[in-house]
## 1
Amino acid sequence: MSAIGLEELRLHRDRIRRESPDTDFRLEEAMTVLSPRDAKDVEEAVRWALEGGRTLDVIGTGSKRGLGRPCDCDAVLNLSALTGVTLYEPDELVLSARAGTPLAEIEALVAAQAQELAFEPADYGGLYGAAAGGGTIGGVVATNLSGPRRIKAGAARDHFLGVSAVSGRAETFKSGGRVVKNVTGYDLCKLLAGSFGTLAVMTDVTVKVLPRAETETSLVLSGLDDAMAARAMAAAMGSSCDVSGAAHLPAAAVGGLDVEGIPQDGALTLLRLEGVPESVRPRAEILSGVLAGFGGCERLGEAASRPVWRAIRDVRPFMLRPDAAADALWRISTAPMQGPALADALRREAQAQVFYDWAGGLIWASVPDAETAGAAAVERAVTAHGGHGMLVRAPEETRRRRDLFTAQSEGVSALSRRVKDGFDPQRLLNPGRIWQGL
């Protein structure tokens, strides 16, 4: 693709109109990349698309292009030049940045102040065979991606305080602000989080940051089957120990962690505790007692605990390796105690391999039949046991044939269409990225 700035685009448009006033303005849109430098440029780009009836594929660095249906658009709106932290007040626990700002840059900045993005944003580069560290803050918020700490800290949308954005009507709007309790009327931040750029183009986002735990430890139970592990995780989450991560990896998934110091000879159930050392130590003792009926616990120190939870966060057991087949990958949310039954159905019907996060409420399922992605089996399983699924990885042609998520109810589908009509009635922004026709 050839890059073309918006000023060049305007000059080219004006020249064509002067020289050929009766000729409709057309570019080789499929080969055009619009690279806005600021929020005003973004508004101009959307207006250009609106006036010409064109569609825009909205991306940052493109690190998640494999997530969602392919967009066959007329032009690419690339926000990767829209970078920079515009406000950071560590004492107020708030940070604002332009949407294309690299996530790695933000994480390094807040880490220097002993803070973090508590929703633990995942890095899915490895799932698509790409380098790690390629995501942007706008991309993370737009996809609402959250890591293992979601069970304690909430999702990305719960840390999303404010936004400046441009709708599909080419109208700039702002929502939220710099504090949590500032919402009157509709909370548009919650709506835009997880919308995959289909409602508006975010230009600047404000998020909450929190102090980073001084230390952490993980308790490890070995050899539990899925149902027993679900009961162990439920007991841990129901205790007073303030568990911040609960995951279960069957034996087949353990080897993919590739973390030194982790047992490799069977299934593992991991429970994470974070905080100051004076708090973590007694909580670990109490939790060991809570889990005594499930077998003896081993304890991982911080040096092993941090990398193992990063590996779980980034779905490393199902990373796309050069020598591996490109299997399909599903991210399925369900009630934690329903997880084992749902996973058993996927094993029987789709030969899936699985592991569990969010105390069993999140199932990662790798399906060897990439051509169909095991979609029928996933639909049946979530219908029978409750929940919903998102197709995280599959070949492009497979993703073209199906929606990003498992089926919506008729009422929710109608609501989705009305929301899209309100923000982007001409279907300019990432059309079809989540649902066909939207």
## 2
Amino acid sequence: MPARRRHRLLIALAAIAAALGVLVLGVWVGGRHPDAVPGPLRSQLTGSEDRRVVNEALDLVESTYYRKVPRSQLADDAIAGVVAKLKDRFSNYFTPEEYARFKDSQNSRFTGVGVSVAPDPKGLRVMNVFDGSPAKAAGITAGDIFVAADGKTLAGVAPDVATARVKGPEGTQVRLTVEQDGKRRTLNVTRRAVSVPVVAAKLREACDKKIGVVSLAQFSSGAHAEVYAALRRLDKQGAEAFVFDLRGNGGGLVDEAQLIASAFLPDGRIVTTRGRNVPERSLDATGSPVIGKDTEVAVLVDRGTASASEIVAGALQDRDRATVVGTRTFGKGVFQQVIELSNGGALDITAGQYFTPKGRNLGGQGVSTGTGIKPDVRAVDNPKTREDEALRAALEAAGGCADKQAP
């Protein structure tokens, strides 16, 4: 090797070694004496001051508190505390165990007590009790309110977190505080694997017509395929109009809402989402509609109709494709992103707002509950009677023998 080239190589190696030495020294000094490192360099070597203080506090709790607390639990509690301070009932932190149960519920399977629920100021209101479920055996009925699980209140808790407290490993017990007609009782219910019937379909008659009724429990993964199949089956059985029952449906996946609305709409806008750190996205009808454009449709809603359910009901109402029957919906105008974390948990964080085809946001200011969707025909079921009065009103609206009433 020529002397000049060898000299340049030695200089380059010396420079690299010096740089590595400075980096190692900087990391060592930054870790032990961060104040001795200049500000711009300190953030690169030791992380931000805020991050350092958080780790310092966790270290002190772990080493000083009178009893041993696992570092993983401290981290879980710290993240949950940050999310709680947002004062956003729709945002929450899932521990690894809770996230696993959440993913199961999105795929319509979980271990729990076998009910569908809707948010209630006191906790969770039972909308349906599945046949053969632990809840059915325990005497829980539709209309009951779960106010606590294992002594932890469910009031004011994000719905996903509240339901996660009721769910749990198969074979374990959950102590439920249940309220009915103002009276409370405590039940010990053993959890087991439950497969949620996402779609129910039946053929009814009203206004001298056959009317297909399709009920959807949640917008879980693959729900659109079940809705399509139910609509086609009822169509073959002679259905001349349809009622799409979204009562008690707290929502789910936005993409499923797009696909399900597409069963009734041939084209055009369904929803627009906007957020501070996510690009604006407009979702339009896709594919071919399952139901012909001249077939009458009524969408049945109540205060438990929220999120993805409101996206579908709002799109069909704005596009003059369906008559909305029932009561005002929940009024959730925001959407969440689920972001997985390295510990196996996840943040379910509010990322933006959604808008119906006419530009309506159904929520209140920020993450507050809004006015929701105003029905075209107001109808309320009387739980003390055997007949479902709200469904009857929807059947008549779809069948064309009921005038629209002022809500």
## 3
Amino acid sequence: MNEWINEKKNKTYTLLGVSVILIFIGYFLYSWYTRWDIKFYTRTPTVEVHHEFEPMSIIKSVVNGNIEDVEIDVTKLNKEIVGKYPVLYKYNNKVITIVVSVVDTQPPIFELINIEIDLGMSVDPADMVVDLQDASDTKIYFKKNYDFSKVGDVEVLVVVEDEYGNKDEKKAIVHVLEEHKEAPELQGIKDLTVRLGDVNFNYFKDITVIDTRDPNPTITVDVENVNIHEVGDYEITYTARNRAGNIASAICKVSVVENKPIGTLEQSDEKIVFLTFDDGPSKLTEEVLDILDQFDITATFFVTGLNPNYFHLIKEAEQRGHTIGLHSYSHNYSEIYSSVDAYYHDLNRIAELCLQQIGYVPVYIRFPGGSSNTVSKRYKPGIMSYLVEDVIAKGYQYYDWNANSGDGSGTLDVVDITTYATLSNANNIVLLFHDANGKHTTVEALPGIIQHYQSLGYRFAGIDDDSYVPHHAVNN
């Protein structure tokens, strides 16, 4: 009986023990399974530098909820720099840290170009690499040492390697040419006028360098001797150098002048007529010059580039004592008023023509159509409002007129031109004429107009830095 009882007790204890063990195992398995409320596809994600990382994409599932309920903190992740960064996942008041590795495993992307060198030059492989793209700093080198000491073509392998060891290599050709001994050529060198105190003056404006081989010769200018704060004449030296080391230099004069406006907007008490002629030189200009000589008077010619056969008359007019001003090279409204850059391109062309003819660039200008023109509005609204201020800021002065012969409106007869031209009784008269081809009646009317004003006690003069400057009201 006791044995049976003992045996039953043992069985009971055994069952209890097994049950406890099963419960413990079940609890352990449940705890193991639920120790993290978030299941991930990977706990060691990587992302390529500069690429996007989608933090939700590594979540496989969550316990008792939705993936959308997971809060993610990526504020410490920097996708632009290689490294390891913590990303925090918060769910059911638990925070799990996942370390994201930002890596660079991509080789540099680039293209190679063939280059030319002159015999004796060294070669920088970086000069052959274009369109380089990579997430980190790179170094560029030849796959091996190459011999560039002989004329001919050398095939080279150029390697581009980033700081993480990713690299690629490509082939190109170095064309070794015969030794280059020719110096580059400086163009556009001319004497300069600088306003007192203008420390931002551009000494390289309109200066170019060309070379028969080097597409990018360098140019420097030595302005050490220029005292921009003291009126006077100074010399500067331009130096151009090509890739072969050949040098060209040129010296020009820089005149530092007082920083004051040219001319005056107030008329003087003296009775003066400033005859001004636009649109020349032409086949009629020499006749005009002869008439002015007959009366021993001077005038002003606002010149254009319309008639190449008569360019030499710009120089002749200046040598006869007349004032030369800039009008327009093309006189094509649709071109010159299409933009500010287009206007200055045209102005610079006529300036260069004057430089060739008279050795300097005049600072007196007249806008085609005058500053009050409205035709410019068709091509660039507001351009005149800008230009009238900008040309003065650049050291020019623009001249409109306060008397008009009317010869710009068509072919008028001598009587009409004389009538219009003699209407003014201002002290200082800036009188508009044209000496373009076809203005024969202007030439015929000119002597009588001169005599009219002389009889009233007027003298005649060319425009200078102190003369009266008429400005129209700007309409654009």
## 4
Amino acid sequence: MQKQQLLILYLYRSALDSRVCGWSRYDGASDVDPVAGEEDEPPYASALDAMRDGWRVIQMSEIAPQETELAYEPGYMAFEVILEKMVDG
């Protein structure tokens, strides 16, 4: 039976070849719960690199115009890409 793995990448820009600035992993084939911040480096340099390794894009963020005065305030990471891979489990 195949089980789903999810990889959520946050990119610096909307392009799939943009560098990763944050990420989360969820492994439906493992009984181990993910721990936020346990990895120092992202699993891939870009979403395109993940795609080349067999991950399938299932959702990309909507690109919305950013207001100039909010450009330097912390908040929502705009360029999210959700990828999945099916593995034997």
